[in-house]
Predict the structure.
Amino acid sequence: MADARRQLRSGTVVLGGMGLLAAALTACSGDPDKRCVDRDSYTAVKGYRVVSDKNCTSTGSAVDAGYYYGGKKKSGWVSGGSFTKPRSGTGGSSGGGHSVKRGGFGSGHGSSGG
């Protein structure tokens, strides 16, 4: 009976440890979502045209390329992101680097009725 209880406890510890490891790896993922784009290709409807990564890594590229972080990709174009790399721990692909602001007690937004 004691052996079964000890085995169950060690299995729980292993499973709990695996959950913590998975959460830590997810929170500390390496690079945020980034794509190499042609900076000169911007249109209001489509965004920026996605090009090969070699255009962002080589110095002699014929395309004015840069890494574009976040956004949504559709049919070889990406929009809604930023050329500014997100800081570590900000969640990666946010839409354009804007923070969410919420109201509530002490937020200073709105007015009190009277």
